[in-house]
Amino acid sequence: MTRSGRPSSVGRPERAYGGLPDGRASRVSVAFGRMTSSVGARFLAGSAALAVGVCCVTPASASTHGHAAAQAIVDGFTSAGAPGAMVYAQDRRGRWSVHSGTAELGTDRPIRPDDRVRVASNTKMFVATVVLRLVGEGRVALDAPIADYLPGLVRGNGYDGARITVRQLLRHTSGLADYVEDVLSDPTSGDHPWRPEDLVAVGLSHPPLFAPDTGWAYSNTNYIVLGMLVEAVTGRFVGTEITDRLIRPLGLSRTSYPAPGDKAIPGRHAHGYYAFPGRPVTDVTELEPSLPGAAAALVSTGEDMTRFVRALLSGGLLRPDLLAELRMTVPADGTDYGLGIREIPLPCGGVAWGHAGDMPGFDSFTAATRDGRSAFVVVNGHLTDGSTADVRGAVGTALCS
Question: Is Protease one of the keywords UniProt gives this record (predicted)?
Fold first, then answer.
């Protein structure tokens, strides 16, 4: 199987793609950014016995009910076996964060709001925003078939790129099968760079999940294809487009889209931990970024992620008509899904908008409301008691504090 550091298709939309990688392993249940189930009501209840680790409260009091509830949640995550957890939020009273556990096993250093982490499928909000910017420039049409931009990429085994549109890829109604479970079942898959077309081929080796626009299923393959679309239209690496259009203008100084081969997280960062089946807990901080690619490669911080999502929802990044397109949703797996973003009902009423990011080592969620509240939650490892970290619930608690 051919693998290289940069997609050879960049700037050459006429290329025909094909070929199935050999040696696929058995599948495991891991995905980037799929919605997670609740860890249990016990993490939502306040507990006076819990030690409160609150920092960066400006100017609101750290002892408010909302912050205590958020503290109880992150303490619950670490009590259930996660190495560390952190909530960072901003509301009309200021910025605040709570933390529990450690950013690195063997130390007492907490995860901080400016610590870099892998934000996994939060990347999809950035990719969707770039695609919509290209729509605004007249270079991409939402309802055009992907075959217009990447001829021959999506075909065979029941797939037809002439029937799958850019909009369907953005909102996961394309029917493309996910590549992630196949490649993550191979412990050596992260040892080398991948070409995006090879990741797509892994997904397309499985039959379509449904006919285009007749169902909804979360598939990272959609966003690998969208990253290739950005590269075909612009002639530049998708990470460069994200950097020049979003990261640099917003001053997201601790956010980066790593190039293939850049496995380490730069600067001060939290470590990520994961227990693969039959193996002990492992430090999985280093990762070959071309494996998650445009579906989940981004590195960022709580501070940067909340700044981005506030800018997005306030209209600072997209024209009003394109922001409206972003928020046009379809029913999904417990929430409604727009173009690279989820609509999230809040426990205090109203909704927020954001995305989850779930990969081995890091589980996160970013969300904001249209009135300017924002929150980011990260857990740097799985829960050893067998439950699942309810990062979406933690975000809801923070936004309703």
Answer: yes
